[in-house]
Amino acid sequence: MRFLLRIIIVATLGITILVTWRLLWTPGGDMAPKAEEDFTLTLDTFLHVQQLRKKSLRAFCSRSGKATMLQTSREERAHLLSRVKVSTKLNFLYCQVPATGVEGWQQLLEELEEKENGTLPAPLPYPQQHTLQTELGRLNLSTIEAVIGSYTKVLFVRDPFQRLVAAYLQSMHRSSSFNNFVQEALDTGMQNAGTAWKPLVSLCLPCLIQYDYVLMFGFLRQELGHLLQCTRLKANTHLLELTDQHVLWTYSWLSKKLLSELSLQQKQQLAHFFRWDLSAFPFSHSLLSDHLSTPESL
Question: Is residue 275 part of a domain?
Answer without folding.
Answer: no
